[in-house]
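Input sequence (470 aa), recorded before submission:
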Amino acid sequence: MRRALGSVRARAAAGATVVVAVALLAAGTAVLLVLQSTLRDQAGLQAEVAAREVATQIATGTPYRKLDLPDGDEHPVVVLDDDGRVLAAGDDVRAVDGKDVRPVQRGSVPPPGDDGDDGDDEDGGPRPGEVDDDQHYQDGTADVDGTVADYRFASVEAKDTGGAKATVRAGSPLAPQRNAVGTVRTAMLIGLPLLLLVVAGVTWLVTRRALRPVEGIRAEMAAITASTDLSRRVPVPAARDEIGRLARTTNETLAALETSVERQRRFVADASHELRSPIASLRTQLEVGVAHPELLDVPGAVEDTERLQRLAADLLLLARLDAGERPAEARVDLAALVREEGSQRVGDRIPVRVGDLAGVEVAGSRGQLGRVLGNLLDNAQRHAVSAVRVTVAREGEWAVLRVDDDGPGVPEEERERIFERFVRLDDARARDDGGAGLGLAIARDVAVRHGGSLAVREGSVFELRLPLTG
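Predicted structure, token format:
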């Protein structure tokens, strides 16, 4: 069991760790992608600002050799004409995308407006003296003072006052972006395992604490099994959670098991006691008959044998009921059952008077319901003074069979106890024919298993309620 609990803790910790790891990896990847894109856009924006500053100078007529170009380390800039010739470049810029930009012969660069452009904007670009509103971005490399690095370039077109078009390419270094992304990635790679260790540890501890009551329940159940003491109960945690409900349900099961075992013990003890008397009486009579045949009480022996047979049949029926035997699903007419039972009781001390019999049908075992009616009539015959009466009525969705007599009745405080097995009350309702005190117990068990009830009403009225068939 300890290994099982440990396995539960390990599986819970592993499952939580895997879930958190997947979530953190997804979130970290998203953060890195967003951060990289944001920094990349920021570098592009910086490059665009630098390019537009130079393009504005060109549009205002500043000669290429007098352009105020930014420091090459921060923003390498190169100015190209339509044919790709280098018109101007930063002092420290040696090459862009592998192309050498140093041999710029500023004196040979044609002055603004000498390229033959008449100033018309036939290609859809900017007009003379204007900067194009559009820009283009591209990643590339630049050699600045002998150091080659990656940059985000922004290209902006402009026309000088003479209508000559130039393209300004300005770059912004990508190294800060990559350093920032790398720093965040490194922090994640270091922090993620640590966080997963914390998650696994916390999950392990929380699961261990949550399962601690289960271990207490297991230990107590093991002790109960070893001691066979069903009066013990498992500890119930204060928390009203699933484990608390488990503990309460376990205690309810133990209580039901204790009641069942105690009932079985009493049943075995009472059955042994009840069987001892007729068996001893029958043996005595047979031994006397063997020694003195003329003294053999044959009617008495037959009576003891019949009593023993009835008791054995009652015990067998109770055993079947306790085993959960379900009644048959036949349709039984209670009125016909009463008439049939009444016609067979010709030797009763008091004739059974049949009252109103409503035509109602119930589902169940005809034999078991006949046994209930017979037991109720036997009980009434045992205690009646001069009258026993049976009626059948319909009340809503219930069929109601009542058996009453004019005897002294059952005291109110005893009306539940008489349905216990082997229970016999005082002399007013004690047996006078050798009854074992099982008839009413059998009658109630059969009624309950048919979905109904059996109770005492108004002292000596026994009322059987059964659901009507659909």
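Checked by second reader. Residues 242-322 form a domain with the Helix Hairpins fold (CATH 1.10.287.130).
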